[in-house]
Amino acid sequence: MVIDGPPTVGKSTLVKLFAADLEKTLRRREPHKFQPHENDGYIVDYTPVVYISIPSQATPKDLSAAFAEWFNLPLRRAATKNEMTDAVLRATGLCGVQLIIIDDVHFLDLSAKEGKVVNDHLKYLANHCAATFVFTGHDLETSGLFLEGGASERATQTSGRNSLHKLGLFTIGTDDERRAWANVVKTMEDALVLLDHKPGTLIRDHEYLHHRTGGSIASLSLLIREAAIRAVVSSEEAITRKVLDQVVIDRRATRGYDKFRKQHNIHHNGNPGRQEPPAEAS
Ligand SMILES: Nc1ncnc2c1ncn2[C@@H]1O[C@H](COP(=O)(O)OP(=O)(O)OP(=O)(O)O)[C@@H](O)[C@H]1O
Ligand SMILES: [Mg+2]
Q1: Paired strand residues for 108
Q2: Torsion sign across C-alpha atoms 121, 125, 126, 128
Q3: SS3 152
Q4: Tell me, what's the pLDDT at 273?
Q5: For the domain that residue 212 is a member of, what is the CATH number?
Q6: Which residue, judged by its Cα, is nearest atom 5 of ligand 1?
Q7: What CATH code is carried by the domain that includes residue 142?
Q8: Nearest ligand 1 atom, CA 184
Q9: Given this model, what pLDDT does residue 258 score?
Q10: Residues 133, 215 share a domain
Q11: Whose CA is nearest to atom 3 of ligand 1?
Q12: Which residues, listed in sequence order, are joined to residue 224 by a DSSP beta bridge?
């Protein structure tokens, strides 16, 4: 599976939550498997999930090295790519790996020369271990991993093996989209521990929050966290529109909101009008 989306939409958070959920479920259901045990002459730790975050401009050897590090495999410094990959594949089998997450896959060097080698390497890894692979990153559809249009036969072998899922910014064009956004706001509001905060205040402001953040979950979490800190420091103990207006968040969101205000002729600290929360989010 490939999860493709622009920066900071929550791809890493999503896959890490999913991975943690899977491992916790397995630990609950099959605790005995997690005791160190002998397998083929080795003492192994059952390791159902592997999470690799790719460093920038990584080569196939770097990818195998990252796996080796996750498994704490003792490898010679001068080990070749093939030696490393063989050791990694043996470890994935022995440790019972079920899910392999490769995050920030756009950092793999997919330039014309290396691209084929990387694609072949990923295919080799996927073919030789029984785990499910999840890749995340941005612009993957048009990168060497998929090579839409003008794709070489070999590159499309990777795209032919994976389903593509897109993750983007939240929009509030339809009732369903608005409800989904309001539910995100509600979840963050429910997590607040402010003495005098009136529950529901932020949901009522969900449209304003969308204008402020452009529908980015990262900007929303930044805005609410910063507002909550201000509410504690000022002893107000509640997030109000006044506090939210004072918080400066990331440049992308701020520029988007400035543009929105200009288009709608809203002055600083202006009120674009409160909306009642969508029924299911209240
Ligand atoms: N489900 C969530 N609930 C609350 N906050 C979230 C959630 N998902 C993401 N965030 C916030 O957004 C920030 C960015 O998320 P994340 O790092 O997962 O994005 P990303 O898509 O992996 O970005 P990049 O492409 O830069 O790696 C996180 O630091 C977190 O504060
Ligand atoms: Mg990420």
Answers
A1: 58
A2: positive
A3: coil
A4: 47
A5: 1.10.8
A6: 221
A7: 3.40.50.300
A8: 3
A9: 86
A10: no
A11: 217
A12: none
